[in-house]
Amino acid sequence: MDMITGKHRLSATNADLSGSRFDDVNISGSVLHNVNMSGMRVDEANLAGVHVSSANLAGARIFGCRLEGMTINGLLVTDLLAAYENTKAKGAP
Q1: pLDDT digits (tens, 9 = 90+) for 67-87
Q2: What's phi and psi for 89, nearest 5 deg?
Q3: How many CB atoms lie within 10 A of CB 19?
Q4: Residue 86: what are its φ and ψ, rounded to 5°?
Q5: CB 78 within 8 Å of CB 67
């Protein structure tokens, strides 16, 4: 199914959308619950204000991203990275 141009509201329940592609799409305000996104790739996306909870992030890789204000368990990621770099600079393994 192709959706090209226009505004559409999609509701999918107990569906297999694996292999789908989204390009230049606005899904702001969407809710993803009990969704398998393993192996998913997100490039050049605006995830500002995204809330992730009770998710399996094992093996997740984040790189080349703006991290201002991003927290993990209430801790600023920029502070965690700065502390890591400081420890590394002091020669700790």
Answers
A1: 999 999 999 999 999 999 999
A2: -65, -30
A3: 5
A4: -65, -45
A5: yes
- Return the closest-CA partner of residue 70 out of 80, 61, 60: 80
Q: Which tokens is 53 given?
A: 């909870």
User: Residue 20 and residue 1: Cα distance in Å, rounded?
Assistant: 10
Residues in the chain with pLDDT < 70? 93
Q: Which amino acid is at 28?
A: S
Question: Which H or E run contains 79?
Answer: helix 77-89
How many whole angstroms separate alpha carbon 66 and alpha carbon 78?
10
Say how far apart CA 21 and CA 80 lie, in whole Å.
34
Tokens found for residue 86: 């400081």
How many C-beta atoms lie closer than 10 Å to residue 88's C-beta?
A: 10
